[in-house]
Design goal:
CATH superfamily: P-loop containing nucleotide triphosphate hydrolases
Low-confidence stretches: none
CATH topology: Rossmann fold
Mean pLDDT: 92
Shape: globular
CATH architecture: 3-Layer(aba) Sandwich
Distance between the termini: 8 Å
Strand order of the largest sheet: 3-4-2-5-1-6-7
Number of strands: 7
Helix content: 40-55%
Radius of gyration: 17 Å
Number of domains: 1
């Protein structure tokens, strides 16, 4: 099992789009994939078309129950894409969860324990982290072998990359020596006609992160349409250029050994 966290220092950079789309593409390629929604907003759960009814276990129950009493198998949902399963979020249950978890001994280890004791693991697990660097993101990194991050093409957005890199380094030193940065994905890229600012930002990204920079993903109306339809991009519009952008990202990650 390979566990990859998708983390970012702030929201609205394409993090959940990357997580949901990669998970769907991985499953479509014949590799089983679990998508763990770890963001209290629950956008990955919504996008994957998963509905959580009252009393159904979610990721919050896995974390907050006594260790071993609520497992990932009980919380998983199948999706319209064969091989793709989702461990969902219930927004009400996630409200205030970081504060509640902070009172528990070893809270940052709970997701790792749940994944390592899983009796039905997928070949790849993707964790969609919150758009912040709090306890939940740290917990996800502790549970992972690899981290992906994503950035929009602006100088302000690029300024957040050192923060996530610093967090990764701390987690690696304290909890997870083998944790590595799998890549930085430039996302929501406007056309060149949008101005020099964006091309300058991309050039700066390439200069700073060199071989860690994945293929870029364009800005496209198909993304919000896909979210509104509650279908991942590879299901909603498999032939869209933006969907192919994400295929290129997956091909790049595979070549880098990120899924192994």
């Amino acid at each position: 099992m390979t566990v990859i966290s998708i983390a970012n220092a702030s929201g609205s950079a394409g993090k959940t789009t990357l997580g949901v789309t990669l998970a769907a593409l991985i499953a479509q390629s014949g590799i089983t994939c679990d998508l763990v929604d770890f963001d209290p907003q629950g956008n990955a759960t919504h996008w994957a078309g998963v509905d959580v009814t009252a009393g159904q276990p979610t990721i919050a129950d896995v974390l907050e129950a006594e260790i071993g009493t609520v497992n990932l198998t009980a919380a998983r949902h199948t999706t319209a894409i064969p091989g793709l399963r989702v461990v969902p979020v219930n927004r009400d249950r996630m409200e205030g969860i970081e504060l509640r978890l902070s009172r528990l001994t070893g809270a940052e280890q709970l997701l790792r324990i749940a994944l390592e004791s899983d009796d039905d693991p997928a070949q790849v697990t993707i964790i969609d982290c919150p758009g912040s660097l709090g306890l939940l993101t740290v917990s996800a990194l502790v549970a992972s072998e690899k981290m992906l991050t994503v950035t929009a093409p602006g100088m302000k957005e690029l300024g957040g990359l050192p923060l996530i890199a610093k967090t990764l380094d701390k987690v690696r030193k304290v909890y997870r020596p083998g944790l590595t940065l799998a890549g930085v994905v430039p996302s929501i890229i406007p056309p060149r006609s949008a101005g020099r600012h964006y091309t300058d930002a991309l050039e700066q990204l390439q200069g700073q992160w060199t071989d860690k920079v994945a293929p870029a993903v364009r800005r496209a109306v198909r993304v919000p349409e896909s979210y509104a339809a509650r279908e991942p991009l590879p299901l909603y519009d498999p032939t869209a250029p933006v969907t192919d952008d994400y295929r290129q990202v997956l091909t790049w990650l595979t070549a880098q050994g990120a899924l192994a």
